Amino acid sequence: MNNNEENILKVEHLQKSYGNHQVLRDISFDINKGEIMTIIGPSGGGKSTMLRCINLLEDPTEGKILFYGDNILAPKYDLNHYRSKVGMVFQQFNLFNNKNVLQNCMIGQESVLGRSKTEAEKIARENLQKVGMEAYAEAKPAQLSGGQQQRVAIARAISMNPEVLLFDEPTSALDPEMVGEVLKTMSNLAKTGLTMVIVTHEMGFARDISNHVVFMSDGVITEQGTPDQIFNHPQEEKTQKFLRNFRNEQF
Ligand SMILES: Nc1ncnc2c1ncn2[C@@H]1O[C@H](COP(=O)(O)OP(=O)(O)OP(=O)(O)O)[C@@H](O)[C@H]1O
To answer: Matching SUPFAM superfamilies, A to Z (predicted)?
Structure first.
């Protein structure tokens, strides 16, 4: 972990319940600027819920989320500021099907960031080029493969100039042959220095891309550390068991 770098996001004792069902129990971690944090663990462990809490798509029941030291859950915090700095890429892409690829990458820039149409188009085209989708600018999302749609969703997210980009299982909805192109796009993005938090079931990818790996099970972070610590020397029985299930097939 880059402990000498500037802390950008700090989660302290986060809890989330749905009625009597406590999904997140006591989640704490730090993310430094430029860090690539992956969140792994068994299904139903609370990974997506945690990401959705960070993105304020869910209200945490207890705890703090500090962005550059300020608690975004405090009543006076300017949430529009936070929302404009933290982007998210979803499993199901969430593109507007009635708009073309270019328009999808421009909407938020104009409405949220107040960029002019000309500026938004320039930035959208640059980012579509970065993800290899510039030739499809005029296409509608429904005309594209899942992998192509996800690359457009990534272009849209980075067009908003986020400081942190969250990925919620970005390849889980894809046919296997399309997973690689999306992971490659994310690896390229990681090299630009963007801070990324990624929930994934792609263990080889998590090992290769991260500098901070969090293992979550039953709403608790049972272990976190460098990829070498988590993948090569896991200390906890739950982590060891989870990784054993993947080892022969996916590594
Ligand atoms: N809106 C909701 N209402 C009630 N329960 C929910 C809701 N969202 C999630 N849960 C429950 O919270 C628990 C954690 O779900 P979550 O999707 O966060 O796990 P996950 O680790 O991301 O799983 P997966 O890897 O399968 O996506 C599950 O038991 C799920 O049923």
So the answer is: P-loop containing nucleoside triphosphate hydrolases
